[in-house]
Amino acid sequence: MAHIDIARRVYDHSWKLDPIVRSLLDTDFYKLLMLQMIWGLRRDVRADFTLINRSKDIRLADDIDEQELRDQLDHARTLRFSKKEMIWLAGNTFYGRKQIFEPDFLDWLADFQLPEYDLRREDGQFVLNFTGLWTHTSMWEIPALAIVNELRSRAAMRKMGRFDLDVLYARAKARLWEKVERLRQLPDLRISDFGTRRRHGFLWQRWCVEALKEGLGKSLLGTSNVLHAMETDLEAIGTNAHELPMVMAALADSDEARLMAPYTVLESWKKYYGGNLLVVLPDAFGTTAFLRRAPDWVADWTGFRPDSKPPIEGGEEIIAWWRLRGRDPRGKLLVFSDALDVDSIEKTYRHFHGRVRMSFGWGTNLTNDFEGCATRPDLDLRPASLVCKVSSANGRPAVKLSDNLQKATGTPEAIAHYMKVFDYETPSPRAVDEQVA
Amino acid sequence: MAHIDIARRVYDHSWKLDPIVRSLLDTDFYKLLMLQMIWGLRRDVRADFTLINRSKDIRLADDIDEQELRDQLDHARTLRFSKKEMIWLAGNTFYGRKQIFEPDFLDWLADFQLPEYDLRREDGQFVLNFTGLWTHTSMWEIPALAIVNELRSRAAMRKMGRFDLDVLYARAKARLWEKVERLRQLPDLRISDFGTRRRHGFLWQRWCVEALKEGLGKSLLGTSNVLHAMETDLEAIGTNAHELPMVMAALADSDEARLMAPYTVLESWKKYYGGNLLVVLPDAFGTTAFLRRAPDWVADWTGFRPDSKPPIEGGEEIIAWWRLRGRDPRGKLLVFSDALDVDSIEKTYRHFHGRVRMSFGWGTNLTNDFEGCATRPDLDLRPASLVCKVSSANGRPAVKLSDNLQKATGTPEAIAHYMKVFDYETPSPRAVDEQVA
After folding, report:
1. Which residue of B has its CA nearest to A168?
2. Rg for chain B (alpha carbons), in Å?
3. CB contact under 8 A, B167 and A174
4. A234, A228 in Cβ contact below 8 A?
5. pLDDT number for residue A196
6. Which residue is closest to A3 within chain B, CA to CA?
7. Could you give the ipTM of this predicted complex?
8. Which of A147, A159, B193, B274 has the fewest Cβ atoms within 10 Å of its own Cβ atom?
9. Cα–Cα distance for residue pair A128/A212, rounded to 1 Å
10. Alpha-carbon gap, residue B132 to B29, rounded angstroms
């Protein structure tokens, strides 16, 4: 018997495209939760999203061929939710609740297609914009990021031989397993994969998720990636993102309404979801101001996700606030998801252990930690700090301040205006490079 | 198109045996060089070989199924040199010389078959003996060792899941590549794979050889494994082994003749081989005594292979002897092959650099360094210190003393007699565990 199956080899070498995104479920779960609410309450809103590369020294358009990027984006636009996927969304239990997605929403979703995109090159970077209805543009965030990141990995790996690749993945696997062995020393750890957007590649993310499943057992809550969750029988994990308060604040007709936008978003959310999905993301316009003005019912929510302060500082601030509002933090949940790796997970876990419930959403350093894994230093793979953010809503500028102004997005004028409206207190700066999670 | 080729899968699951040794070339090159001389000069001699497990705490017969071992040994006995292999042996250049193997010898070799074996279990160990003509029993050494070692690896790995195996090999590959990156800091390094006998497995040895080829370039002289050499277009490396002086000393009719046996072996060798194949293995009955009595022409040989003294001590002793005999060590060669790993290679290289030509034969720590690579400590893979040694020649006991009496083989009485005959000076003992190369 010949060693090589000729049909297979010819097929393998005849691919027109090796698609990066092969399913509309290859996205983060929070996009679907938010989409149901956006579709239910604000399906008329137009929102534009734009790709932002915070790593200015990484010239993406020099690394990635524009036509390859177009081919991948075009391929993603051909996708529809398959019958099997629709049945799974309708029949699966998410966060302990059956039928979390309403039949009307699922009917609409069955015909969903990613909308058009605008792409051009400018000074070594891609200018990539998605304009149109919020219900459609929002869904580009994750596939666009995953595509750009994987194209960048592929470009670097094209310079590697068979052997270089073998060593690259051997080292990356050995490294991840060292992390797993450290993390399983933490008995009450609850952790999830949040690494879709900055992943090295789809198949590598799958390996990482399976490594966590194998090595961490019940400490692994699940994965934010809906497709991986379905195919590996794990929980789909995620709640909500900055785009909700950003759009609502942009649409507000007065600064008074703008100030209330972060709370009206939560009121809307509560109409759709409960339990562990009641997690506040407080930092869109600064956590400290958010807490100061928060209505008392916000303290009844299950937890908070501090996303742009150092974990211990951010967690302590929220715990102090719960106490101030007369709530016992031991029954509350903190979800850490910013720039995590094993060191910071261990440190944060030990710091808060016994004082509050915790879970960790592990991103870039889970699914794209290849630094030093290449056989040649010039082929090294450093992830870019890429985001895809809403830039305007119904033509009005959208702004995110966060607790770290280096992560702020929006026009300089709009940022200045929001800082005034929200009484933004300038925190000590953190380098954005530490924050690629 | 289905993901799985049905025919392939059925075939894969229908194997009666996954053979460990699939070619008579899957042996060390020195066996063929010695065999030509044995066949040419002493084809009448009967020599018995026996498997010796120096790692008494490793109960091989508890780890390995006896029938599996028989099946593998039986399969090796079905092998013949293939036409392609015979053509390559005849046509290839070895150590810079064409037609190193004579046509008559190759004609005889074409019909070669491994002889029968005697196998039984005793107290958790295998008693494995090969009795018969030296021309045949000698050829069991390498396949027998490779089979026992790989069966032991397989037995351990049968307890591992798909994922454990993935991590095991990822870690082993990452570890080997760290070694390669250290070794390529040594610009004049000359190193060979000597790891056939104690390899983790055939495919793993191939990976190691290819890693060295990829990472070390011209610093890799080649591999002792003839099959790997042929298939990867590398040089086949090796000279001679202790069995030559051991058999010749056993056959000697007087102690005077016995004392001369190590030198008569060299005289015979020189009739067959020249150049870099003129490497003395001086330690069969103690290096110090060998050097003291050596005829002056021994100092004209290209080099020495100190095999059982610490490399620096052994090398210094030989360099001092060359000087004493009026030869310039800078034109001479030292081949180090005992218990090497990166630390000792670096140390030895730096110690002798510029004073003598060196090459390194890297064995167990190249092809079987899996300690700590398993996902569970109870599945850890530690290589056994296994050898397969000539035990008698024409019914007379064969003895090896070496420079480390823990590596001595033979009956206690015969060892005592040889120590007296050869004026053996008892050196400081080294633990045999350090010496699995």
Report:
1. B174
2. 21
3. yes
4. yes
5. 98
6. B8
7. 0.86
8. A159
9. 33
10. 22
Secondary structure of B338-353 as H, E, C letters: CCCCHHHHHHHHHHHC
pLDDT exceeds cutoff 70 at A6: yes
Chain B residues with beta carbon closer than 8 angstroms to that of A163: 210-211, 214
| Distance separating alpha carbons of residues B140 and B128, to the nearest angstrom | 11
> What confidence tens digit (pLDDT) does each residue in B197-231 have?
999 999 999 999 999 999 999 999 999 999 999 99
How much of chain B is helix, strand and coil, in % rounded to 5? 50, 15, 35
Q: Does A11 touch chain B (CB under 8 A)?
A: yes
**Contact list, B167 vs chain A (CB under 8 Å):** 173-174, 177, 211
Distance from CA of B174 to the nearest CA of A (A): 5
Strands A357-362 and A191-193: parallel
Calpha distance B200→B152 (Å, rounded): 8
Q: What's chain B's average pLDDT? A: 94
Task: Confirm or reject contact between A2 and chain B (CB < 8 A).
Answer: no
Q: Is A170 in Cβ contact with B171 (below 8 Å)? A: yes
How is A106-154 classified by DSSP, letter by letter?
A: HHHHTT------EEEEETTEEEEEE-SBHHHHGGGHHHHHHHHHHHHHH
Domains of chain A: 27-79+114-422 (3.20.140.10)
**Tens digits of residue pLDDT in A41-79:** 999 999 999 999 999 999 999 999 999 999 999 999 999
| More confident call, B243 vs B162 | B243
Tens-digit pLDDT profile for residues A327-362? 999 999 999 998 899 999 999 999 999 999 999 999
The C-alpha atoms of residue A91 and residue A311 are separated, in whole angstroms, by 36
CA–CA separation, B20 vs B151, rounded Å? 8
Q: What pLDDT sits at residue B6?
A: 78
Is B322's pLDDT higher than 60? yes
What are the tokens at B236? 């086949």
Q: Which residue has the tokens 């297979």?
A: A8
CA distance A304 to A329: 11
* Model pTM score: 0.90
Question: Cβ contact (<8 Å) for A174 and B171?
Answer: yes
For the record, the structure tokens of B323 come out as 């000087």
Q: Which amino acid is at B361?
A: G
Q: Is A203 part of the contact surface with chain B (CB cutoff 8 Å)?
A: no
